[in-house]
Write a structure and sequence with these properties.
The chain is built from 13 helices and no strands. Helix 5 packs parallel to helix 9. The longest helix has 26 residues. The radius of gyration is 19 Å and the shape is elongated. 31% of the residues are buried. The model has no long low-confidence stretch (mean pLDDT 91).
C-alpha cells in the first residue's frame, strides 16, 4: 500500500477507534468493532497495531507527536530554552485539553484493568516529561535557569502550565478553552516559572 493511501486509511481507522471508544468504553471496544466501523479488515488492524493496546498507544503517540518534535528539535539544536518553552506550552495545552485526549482519559478512568491508563502514560507524559527535563537541564547548564534538580523543576512547570485543566475537561466541568485562553495560560505559566527559576534567582541564592 502506498504511503499516502496508508496514511488516509490510518486516519479512518483512528477516527473509528475514537468513535467506538466513546460509544462502548475501553472494555467494550474490540479490534473487530473498530475494523467494522472503519470498513477495514480485522487482519489489517492486527498487522498495523498488534492489538487493541497497541492501537490506542499509537493514538496517544500520534497526538503527542508535535510536542515531541518541538522538544527534540531543541535538544538536538541547542536553541534557546526559554523560547522553546514559550513555543511548546500552548501546543501541549491544546493537546491535553483536546477532545481526543479527553475521550482517552475518560475511557481510561473507567477501565478497571488500568491497561489504557498505562498506555496513555507510556506514550504521553512518560515520553514528553523527560524531554522537558532535558531542555531544562540544557538551560541550567547555560545559566538560563537556576535550580538544583531539572526533574523537580519540570514538575513545577507542568503544574503551572496544566494544573487541573485536563481533569476539569475530563469530568465535564470545563468546555474546550479557546486558543487565546490557552496561549495566555501558557504565557502566564512561563512567566511564573521564570520568576521562580530564572537567571535572576542565581543572585538571590548568592
Amino acid at each position: 500500500m502506498r504511503d499516502e493511501n496508508r496514511s488516509i486509511r490510518q486516519d479512518q481507522i483512528e477516527q473509528a477507534a475514537y468513535a467506538v471508544l466513546e460509544a462502548k468504553g475501553y472494555a467494550g471496544t474490540s479490534m473487530l468493532a473498530i475494523a467494522r466501523a472503519a470498513r477495514a479488515s480485522n487482519e489489517t488492524l492486527y498487522n498495523w497495531y498488534g492489538d487493541k493496546t497497541g492501537l490506542f498507544a499509537a493514538l496517544v503517540r500520534r497526538n503527542a507527536a508535535e510536542v515531541r518534535a518541538l522538544l527534540s528539535e531543541q535538544i538536538a539544536g541547542q536553541g534557546d530554552q526559554v523560547d522553546t518553552l514559550a513555543r511548546v506550552g500552548p501546543v501541549l495545552l491544546r493537546l491535553v485539553t483536546s477532545d481526543r485526549a479527553v475521550a482517552l482519559n475518560r475511557a481510561a478512568a473507567a477501565d478497571p484493568t488500568g491497561e489504557l491508563g498505562r498506555a496513555i502514560a507510556a506514550e504521553g507524559r512518560d515520553t514528553v516529561a523527560p524531554l522537558i527535563v532535558s531542555v531544562l537541564a540544557q538551560g541550567q547548564a547555560q545559566a538560563r535557569f537556576a535550580f538544583d534538580d531539572p526533574a523537580a523543576a519540570s514538575d513545577v512547570y507542568l503544574g503551572l502550565l496544566i494544573g487541573d485543566l485536563q481533569i476539569r475537561r475530563v469530568v465535564a466541568r470545563l468546555p474546550q478553552p479557546s486558543a487565546a485562553v490557552l496561549d495566555a495560560r501558557a504565557a502566564s505559566a512561563l512567566r511564573l516559572f521564570l520568576q521562580l527559576f530564572g537567571p535572576q534567582t542565581l543572585h538571590r541564592q548568592d
